[in-house]
Amino acid sequence: MASIWNPWRGCHRHSDGCKYCYIHKGDAKRGVDTGRVEKADKFGWPVRRNKKGEYSVKPGQTVFLCFTSDFLVEDADDWRGECWDMMRERSDLHFLFLTKRIERFMDCVPPDWGGGWDNVTVGCTVENQQRADERLSLFATLPIKHKNIICQPLIEQIDISSYLKGIELVVVGGESDRNARPLDYAWVLDIRRQCIEAGVLFEFRQCGTHFIKDGKEYTLQVKDLGAQARKANINT
């Protein structure tokens, strides 16, 4: 069972993979300024209790954290400590967040982080070889007990084989937009091969709007991107 916890909303584009970010596109449709990072009404959600004094969020769940922003975004520095406090209190939940700002990680962890917390998974997001080399070389050195690599949106072929030690899962996905950069299925299969050779789990999460297979380019509907990836049946 899984839940979503977005303690704040808003973000800033940080690298090439942010060009067609779903957060910015969704906010634009609603007339919302994405650049304004604000606390959400659900900020204290994990520790809220019902009338019986029990936690409203039942134990044993995976909580996808901060998927309307980046958990390490600079604007949230004053609030993040409270989130760590709640995550510490709810050690019976497993929290997972993704970040393009892995260089900020050690400046953002709580004093008792030590070698990492058992109930936190961190996903480092990369989109091309430059970002993979920059971020994953640092990611490999960080004290985190559960590490994922998120290659989404993948905008070119990349080699991450030298960064897979200690990684639990690699996720690959394409870009979603009518102007999206294409995803070549050969790139997906190559990362899958790297994961199999390293004994790391692999997940193909979504095709790209523009998807190349065997040299032919297809244009897919956004609603079909995840389903088409699942039909490939290549997750390990």
Shape: globular
Beta content comes to 15-25%
Q: Provide a count of the helices.
A: 6
The succession of helices and strands, N to C, reads EEHEEHEHEHEEEHEEEH
N-end to C-end Cα span: 20 Å
Biggest sheet architecture: 7 strands, parallel
Query: Which structural category fits the helices and strands?
Result: alpha/beta
Strand order of the largest sheet: 1-4-5-6-7-8-10
The parts where pLDDT drops under 50 for at least 5 residues are none
* Helix content range: 25-40%
Any idea what the radius of gyration is? 18 Å
Report on this structure.
It is a single chain. The chain is α/β, with parallel strands linked by helices and 236 residues long. It is built from six helices and twelve strands. Strands 1-4-5-6-7-8-10 form a seven-stranded parallel beta sheet. The longest helix has 14 residues. It is globular. The two termini are 20 Å apart. The model has no long low-confidence stretch (mean pLDDT 95).
Please write out the topology.
Layout (H helix, E strand, L loop, with lengths): L1 E4 L2 E2 L12 H9 L7 E2 L22 E4 L11 H13 L4 E6 L5 H4 L11 E6 L3 H11 L6 E6 L15 E7 L9 E2 H14 L2 E6 L3 E4 L2 E4 L5 H8 L4
Parallel strand pairs: 1-4, 4-5, 5-6, 6-7, 7-8, 8-10, 9-11
Antiparallel strand pairs: 2-3, 11-12
Summarize the entry for a quick read:
With 236 residues, the protein is an alpha/beta fold. The protein contains six helices and twelve strands.
